[in-house]
Structure formats: C-alpha cells, structure tokens
Amino acid sequence: MALKRFASIDVGSFEIELGIYEFSKGGGIRLVDNVRHVIALGSDTYRNGEISFPLVQELIAVLKDFTRIIAEYRCEAYRAIATSAMREATNSAIVLDQIKTRTGLSVQILSNAEQRMLVLKALAACGERFDALANEGAAVVEAGFGSMQVSLYEAGKMQSTQNLRLGALRLRDTLQQLNSARDDRERILQETVAHELDVYEHLHLRGRRVRHMIAIGDPIRVLYDKIMRAQQLNPEEESFADIGRMKGLYQYVIARTEAELEETLDLNPATTGVLLPAAVLYQRMAETVGAEMVWFPGTRLIDGVAADYAFEKKLVQRTHDFDADILAAVQELATRYGERTAHRRYTVGCALQIFDALKKAQGFTARDRLLLEIAATLHHCGRFLNMGNASESSGDIIRATEIVGLSTEEHALIVQILRNEDDVFGRRDIPLKAAKFAAVIRLANAMDRSAKQKAGAYRIRLREDGTLPVATDFGGDMTLERLSFEQCIPSFSNVFGISPVFRQRRSLGSGVV
Length: 513
What we know:
With 513 residues, the chain is of the alpha/beta class.
C-alpha cells in the first residue's frame, strides 16, 4: 500500500512549525520533515491585545514558504491550527483572512480544550507507554508559551484537567519589565508560580496519588533535548528521569546566564529567554504533584494534529479511548457539584435509551450520543449553587468550565441544553438540537422522579404510528413518575413530532394499568 503524506502546521505563540508525516499500517506515524520559525506572536497579543502589522507580514511570508514545501512533498491533505496568541488577539479575524487570501491556507483557531485533546492524542500515538503510566497515576503537564495545562489520570482515565495562565512567554514578558538581578527574577518567578500551584493543589490534588509526571510542551522539549545532548546523552533513549535528574535540569538553567545558555546549548536568544520560566514551572509542578518519575516524550502539537487525522481516517490503529477520558472527567465534575450518583447514572441510562430509539429516524450520530451523555451527566449540577433555578445555574457552571475534547460549538451546545432543560421553549433562540436533547433529558429525569429507580429497566421503542412507548414491568406505585412523565409529553411532542406513552404492566389487586 502506498504511503500517505500529511502536513501539519502550528501557528503558535512563540513559533510557527510545519511537520510532514507519512502514515502506514505497519509503520504507524512517521515524521519525515520538520521546519520551525521563531516569531513571538504571543508577545504582541499578551502585551497589546493584537498582532502587529510587521509580524503579520512575517507570518504570511513563512506560511507561503510552508505551502511550497507541502506541494513539494505532494501531501494529500493538511491542517493548519492556531493557539492562544491568535485566539486572544482582537484582530485575529483580519489576520486569518489575510493568510487565506495571500497563501491559500485555511487556519483554524483551536479552543484550549481542543488544543489539549490533540496533545493527548500525540501521547497516545507513542504506543503503550502512555496507557501504562496513566493506569498507574499520572499528571500530564504541558507548559506552553501562553499557559500551562495539567491533566490528571487515574486507572487509565482522565479525572480532571485545568488550565493555568502560567505560560513561559507570559512569565518572560513580565520579567522583562523588571530591572532586577537574575537571582531576584528567579525569586519572583518562584513566588508567582507557587501561589497558583498552591491553589491548584488545594482544589484538585487532595487525596490523589500521582506516581508519574509526563512533561510536554515546546520549552521543556527543547530544554531536555539540548541539556541531554550537551552531556553526551541521547534524549530519546533516556526519556525517563527521576526527581534527582529533574532537579539537575533546573539547577543547570538557574546556574547560568542567558548568554552562557545560548552558547552552551546552541540556542537563539529568543528561545534562551523562556528557559528560566520553563525550568521553574516544571520543577515546581513536579514538587506539587509529588511525582516519583518524569517522562519526557518529546511530542509536539503538530504530532497531535497528525495523530488526530490518522485516527479519524483509520490510517493507524487507535489504542486509547478518548471518549472515555471525556466522560470520566465529566463524571468527576458532576460529583464535585453534588449530583446524586445513583439517580444520575439511571437518568443517563434512560436518556441514552431514548436516544437509541430515536437515532435512526432523527439522523443522530455517535458524536451526538456522546454530547447527550455529557449533558445528561451534568443535568441539574446547578443545584449546587441555586436549587430554585438549577438549569440556569447549570449553564453558568459549565460555561465557565473547560471540557477537554469538545469544540467551542459543542461546549456551547451543552450549555444551551442545560439552561433549557426545565423549559424547552423558554427561549426562542435555542438551537433545535439543544431543544431536542433538553427534552430527552427532561423525560429521562421524569422516569426516575422519585430518585429510587423503581422501574428497573425500561423498554423503549419508536413505533411507526409516531408514538414512543416507554414500558416497565414494575408492579408497584409509580404515580409520581407517571405524572412527571405526562407533564413532559407536550414539550417532547412539539420538538420531535413524536408522542411518548408511559406503560406499566397490570398487577392484580394493585390497580396499576
């Protein structure tokens, strides 16, 4: 079978990077060529709120060169993405339009949640090593130029993920405003990072056992690679480090001036400037999670873009279940806001039964099922804030909460579903899919109105006459569930054009019909 080639472009906060990849069933994903150009778009955005005209011109020139390389390799497809610098720039729409007009490249701005999922897919493409560490308990720490993401894994599944505005470039730009000695800069960095990590530890690490830290991100990748090679060691063969070696990396950086680092590690001045913030971030994070070992896999965002394409097109086998990661993190979120576990599980199960009965007639997809499961898991989490207006509060909570793996549009859909669960037609601007899923969750919730799971397993099927019988063999009193169910019929029928029917088996002497 002929090899397939794919081009991946990352318009990052500190540099633009192109990767040319080959895919094969036997060989997996192989990086064929890699081109990088340092351009600190983030410095403009984080300082001034927009990307300046000279940097836009430089960016376009580099991307034009990338298109030539892509054509020379005869790549079958490409994907170009942009991260926080473009995401936070007020003139991003103008910049993207100029790129499209002058280079032909369509660049997609990723949400932070989408970006982090691509990073995790790059790790999964490394093989069984990632799954093994995740099973034992691991913190995936990605300190980029704009922010730092920490994702916690237990028993092979992601339990939580948080984004901290502690990027190496942000910290470097803050330090450049100070006229301080190097020792003072290290102290200021330590204090800045310590405060944020203390809060993170208090809120998200209590009771968790983290044996491993997986250190990714361009600053640490460059730092580890260069220091290891300076010591005549192969960073790929020596990708694991104990805490002693980790501390040695930190000491290597803080013991040298930027000029010395530039000379000994053969780096350009722009890259050297972010090494001190990066070293502080990773050292303090290793201490915070209490990791025994640190893995430096050397993956990049462009690797994740390539892995995502290969998984989607089934060019290589995917071994890790990313949907399970999303659901595990969502379940942890629901538990944090006090949702009753038994009722939540039961309601989710009922909602998915209704979905499965309707999916063919409604043209629903597997992705739609995942989104419904997420929304059903989070339904009424707003009771934690306001029991009198739970749906509105649920929407507010999830609007402010990152769910890694969801696009911006999918995240907005979940918010709309939760906000409208109590009243499907309360707002005229609700998207149709959100109205449908809200109606499904509302009906599923009614099927366990007493929160006692009386009915056991319901039987649900869509009939040709446009009715949706929901049947149970439970012979006891289900008056509350029946009344709640009937209250949901008008809104469900209006949004689907289908009439749900509650059916309970006859029980002699019970009066149940």
